[in-house]
Design brief:
Layout lengths: L2 H19 L2 H7 L10 H18 L4 H8 L11 H17 L3 E6 L5 E4 L2 H8 L4 E4 L5 E4 L6 E6 L20 H8 L3 E5 L3 E6 L2 E6 L2 E14 L5 E8 L2 E7 H12 L7 H6 L4 E7 L3
C-alpha cells in the first residue's frame, strides 16, 4: 500500500474512534487540567479520569501501548493538548498497522470472532473494505469495519491450537487454559485495563495483556491526602505493580470480580489468599 493511502486510512480510523468517544472541546475545555491542582483536587481528578478513559479507548488497537499507559500515573499523554494527542496517536496507529506479526481480532455483527493475519487484509479492513477472516473452526467469514461490533490488535499464537483428543480448535497455545476452566480448576475473570484474574486454589493470579504478573500479594488503597476520597487502587504482584482505574469504580470493579462483597471485611476475605491490604495518602498537588 502506498504511504499516502496508508496515512489516509489511519487518519480515517483515528477520526472514527475519536468521534465515538470524545471531541476536541471535551479534551481542551470540559476536561481541561486546572493550573492549581492543590485547590482544585476534585476537578483535577475528574479531568484526569476522563482523559485517562478516553486514551484507553484510543489505545485498544495496541495492547502494549495500552499496558504502558495503564501502568504509568505520570504518562505524558494526560497533559497533552488535543492536537499533540492526535499526533502521538497517529504514530501509534501507524506502528500497529505496519506490524506484520500482529493479528487483528474482529467480532462480526453476529457476535462471531474471526482473526485476520494478512497485513494487507488488516490495512484493507481499517480502510473500510470487506475482507475474510478465519473463525475458531477454520471457516472463512467476511467482515468490515462498518458492520463489526469490535476489533482489536492481538499477538499471534504459537500454533498449538487443537486438542489432540477431540480435534477442537483452541484459542490459547496448547489449550491448557480452556481445559482447566472446563474442569473447574480456574475461575477466569476479565476487567478494565485488559486485566485478567485467575483464581487457582488459594492464589489469585494476575495477567495484563500479554504479561503474566503472577500471584497477587497485596492491594494498596491510595486516598487523596487529607480526605477519605479514594484516588486509585494498586495491585501488588510477584511481577510488579498494576494500576486499576481511578477512583472507587476501579477498586470496586476488582473487588466485585473476585467475589469480595463490599459489605464484608475485605481484609479478612483477601487474607485467605495471602493478600495484604494497605492504605496510603496521595498528594495530587
Amino acid at each position: 500500500m502506498k504511504k499516502p493511502k496508508l496515512r489516509q486510512l489511519i487518519r480515517e480510523e483515528i477520526k472514527s474512534l475519536v468521534n465515538e468517544g470524545f471531541t476536541k472541546n471535551d479534551w481542551n475545555v470540559k476536561w481541561k487540567l486546572p493550573q492549581d491542582n492543590l485547590f482544585n483536587a476534585s476537578k483535577t481528578i475528574d479531568a484526569v479520569n476522563n482523559r485517562s478513559n478516553a486514551i484507553q479507548d484510543l489505545l485498544k488497537l495496541n495492547p502494549k501501548k495500552l499496558q504502558a499507559f495503564n501502568n504509568d500515573d505520570e504518562h505524558p499523554a494526560i497533559k497533552m493538548s488535543y492536537n499533540e494527542l492526535m499526533r502521538w496517536y497517529y504514530s501509534i496507529m501507524k506502528e500497529s498497522v505496519n506490524e506484520g506479526s500482529r493479528t487483528l481480532q474482529v467480532t462480526d455483527g453476529n457476535g462471531k470472532v474471526v482473526l485476520i493475519t494478512d497485513p494487507k487484509d488488516i490495512e484493507n479492513f481499517l480502510a473500510g473494505e470487506e475482507v475474510y477472516g478465519e473463525d475458531k473452526d477454520g471457516g472463512l467469514i467476511g467482515v468490515s469495519i462498518d458492520s463489526a461490533l469490535d476489533h482489536q490488535m492481538a499477538e499471534g499464537t504459537c500454533g498449538y491450537d487443537t486438542d489432540a483428543k477431540t480435534g477442537k480448535k483452541l484459542t490459547t497455545p496448547g489449550g491448557l487454559k480452556e481445559s482447566a476452566i472446563e474442569l473447574g480448576y480456574l475461575s477466569e475473570i476479565k476487567i478494565s485495563r485488559n486485566i485478567e484474574i485467575d483464581i487457582v486454589g488459594n492464589d489469585i493470579m494476575i495477567k495484563q495483556g500479554d504479561k503474566d504478573f503472577g500471584k497477587l500479594v497485596g492491594i494498596t488503597e491510595a486516598y487523596i491526602e487529607g480526605t477519605d476520597r479514594l484516588y486509585r487502587g494498586y495491585l501488588k504482584t510477584e511481577g510488579g505493580q498494576i494500576n486499576l482505574n481511578g477512583g472507587e469504580s476501579g477498586l470496586f470493579e476488582f473487588y466485585d470480580a473476585v467475589g469480595a462483597k463490599r459489605d464484608t471485611d475485605v481484609r479478612e476475605f483477601f487474607s485467605k489468599y495471602g493478600v495484604e491490604i494497605t492504605e496510603r495518602e496521595f498528594d495530587v498537588s
